[in-house]
Amino acid sequence: MAEQIKVIVFALGNEEYGIDVDKVRTIERMMPITRVPKTYSFIKGVINLRGVVIPVIDLRGRFNLEETDYTDQTRIIIVAVGEMEVGFIVDAANDVVDLDRDDIDSPPEVVGGVKAKYLDGVAKVGEDRLLIMLNLAEVLNRGEVAHLEQLED
Amino acid sequence: MDMNQYLSMFIDESNDHLQSLNEKMLELEGSPEDIGIVQVIFRSAHTLKGMAATMGFEDLAALTHQMENVLDLVRNDKLKMQNFIFDTLFKSLDALEAMVQDITQGGEGKADVSSIVASLQAIVRGEAPAGEAAAPAPAAASSTPAAAPQQPAPSADPSGPAMSKEQIQLDEFQHSILEQSLTAGHRVLYIEVSIREDCQLKAARAYMVFDLLERSGEVVKSHPSVQDIEQEKFDRSFSLYFITEKDPEQLRTMILNLSEIEDAKLASIDADTLKQLAAEIETEETEEAPAAVDSAAPAPEAASPAAPEAAAPSDKPAAAAKKVVAAPSRTIRVDIERLDVLMNLFSELLIDRVRLEQLATEIKSQELTESVEHMGRVSSDLQNIVMKLRMVAIDTVFNRFPRMVRDLAKSLGKKLDLVITGAETELDRTVIDEIGDPLVHLLRNSVDHGVESIADRIAAGKPETGTVNLRAFHSGNHVFIEIQDDGRGIDRDKVLASAIKKGVVTEDEARSMSDEQVYQLLFAPGFSTAEKISDISGRGVGLDVVKSKIATLGGHVAVTSKLGEGTLFSVQLPLTLSIISAMMIRLGAEKYAIPLSSIVETGIIRKEQIRNVHGSKLIPYRDAHIPLMSLSRFFDTPSYSEDSEDETEIVVIRKGDRLAALAIDSFIGQSEIVIKNLGKYLPQVQGISGATILGDGQVALILDPNALIK
What we know:
The complex is a heterodimer of chains A (153) and B (710). The model of chain A has no long low-confidence stretch (mean pLDDT 83). In chain A, 12% of the residues lie in helices and 50% in strands. With 153 residues, chain A is mainly beta. Chain A contains three helices and 13 strands; from the N terminus they run βββββαββββββββαα. Chain A has one domain (4-148): CATH 2.40.50.180. In chain A, the strands form three sheets. In chain A, strands 8-1-2-13-12-9 form a six-stranded mixed beta sheet. A five-stranded mixed beta sheet of chain A has the order 3-6-7-5-4. A two-stranded antiparallel sheet of chain A has the order 10-11. Chain B contains 25 helices and 22 strands. Chain B folds into five domains: 4-151, Four Helix Bundle (Hemerythrin (Met), subunit A), CATH 1.20.120.160; 155-291, Histidine kinase CheA-like, P2 response regulator-binding domain (Alpha-Beta Plaits), CATH 3.30.70; 336-390; 393-574, 2-Layer Sandwich (Heat Shock Protein 90); 579-708, CATH 2.40.50.180. In chain B, helix 3 runs parallel beside helix 5 (114-125). Chain B is flat, with a radius of gyration of 34 Å. Chain B is of the alpha+beta class and 710 residues long. The longest helix of chain B has 28 residues, at 336-363. Classes of the chains: A mainly beta (153), B alpha+beta (710). Chain A binds chain B through residues 32, 34-39, 43, 45-48, 50-55, 57, 83-86, 140, 142, 146, and chain B through 344, 347-348, 351, 590, 634-637, 676-683, 685-688, 691, 693, 697-701.
């Protein structure tokens, strides 16, 4: 019997992504963000989450997708990896699904414009729903970000 | 039994005891005749031994035991303190410290102490170390090698004669209880239990005995008292009066069945022996009367109404005498993390308070305003207390210095007095934790480079004993720590010559430098003036590290010196790192906080006052020109630029003695802000030192003026 996990489902562009529920602290509606100057463009700034200052990343920007305006559906998913707490701005987050670890297949090269190294795999949910599982450690890898910036320069 | 839960307590207390041992030893070195100090040292050593043995740190216990032997001879006037004894004892303390350190880091506290133990034993035998053939204490020989009287507890010392009887003293209250029990047909037993010598947890064993006995009867009185037994303040045996219905033999077997119990003696007491005892008590009490405080009235045998009251005093004198030494202040130990949590919670409260104040002014309800104002007052009191909780007397850092300076001076062959003032000055815990090393460096520097050798001092017409003053005091929102020596002072030319040679400055620069600038060269990386490299300081690393460490704490170092007369290092530190006063400013839609400590003044300048020199902007300030920085350009602020304004608000900030003006949009006002970090994910942001949460719940960034002035 394979391990069952719960996954928070969020939308980015036309794709649906998943994050292990254990990694998610809370999901917040859009709130005022204080811009932090002199940092990467995808770091939108910091928010006050009940007394704790937390940096917020636009996931679209992080994955080099086109950034769009925020809507009523826009959410900030606060994730905790190790001692790091970071907010992800996503287009929408409105579902939780149960998954079998066995159902997660290794990802193809590029899914929805997101490189495979940021992904843990792709899971099939139901008949025609594909869930892209994020590799949080890689998404939050700062060393890789610095490298990326250098290339852009 | 799981020892881990006691480990942190053991470490804390051991450190306390080691510290007090160090202090008292230094004190004793100053007045070797004072037996009172020896008593204190002995007690500390004894407690330390007890704790170490309980926790199973045998080397630690063995070494303290030997120290105790030496100290015991001293306090009984059988041995005179001499230099080599001091040195050996100090060496033992170092070894103990090393072991406790090892334990702190998770080690087992094992160390080879045999050589120190051997020299301690030699001292006990009355032998002086070779070379120092000075006459050993005359009386030492008379004390037999078995001079290791494990004194039960400090309490036993003053009241010695009364306790020397094997029997326990009963007051008439307890006496009457025993009497009544006998008449009621119960057995009264006198029990003496001795615990095996190798027992690690005497208190626990004793507890088991008590537990066992209390299940089958009642313990009327024990010696030492139950509290002392719990705190392991007894040697190997204790005795007690016990009322029961059980058979003595049966009880004895039960007690002996407990592990690590060596022997148990039980004696039945009948009415006659009880009477005898009572008679003894009375004679003793009359003898003791002048000494004991208020057990003066030798109450009649019959349980008089006053009896219950009289029950207490017989215990009291011993207990009171002990309290004087054991409890200098009433404190509790609190995990530092809990204090941090408290601080965080309070910060959140502070944010809500500001928010409420805003709402109250908007809503304009009289009652709301009043209660918000009251809450404001309470919360600022609360803020004071919370801040105070985190404050620690700088003594915790200073207290290791006398010893360090003593050792240093000795190894350098110098004579030195360290004068500490203001050790009670309080600083935030976070600062205290960090400031120790920089101060050690500065002190070592003063002792090594500042104070001259004895010969040089005499040649210069100074007293041969040098003085290093270590001062701490509050001033405004800052704490100053000063280290002043009366040594040779800093030789400007020598410093410059060395700096030029090392390429730190050019000759041209050197000529125009002020004295203060020259002294600051000492803090330049890779700079050391000492021609001879000693192992104390002068390896070229050091003062630059000191400076950067102090800078990270938000402080700075200033140096003043007079050739031939001495040098003063003055370290200025912020009182706290978690709540600061700041000026809130606006840049378009964005708000920023500038720490008040780095603001010199605020003002307004007109466009025509700004001059362009080589592409950078300068403005007149007092008699000079200072650079004007555009904060909006530095931060790429989208919603504001001062270029379009005729008049611009400026903030003049300072870093050391350099000034700069920042052009801003407008001022919001001054307020107390709680410093938060930006979270682990964000890399160091240039020009930003942290964030704070405003009354409206939004985050504002705190400027780092040090990064803005280059």
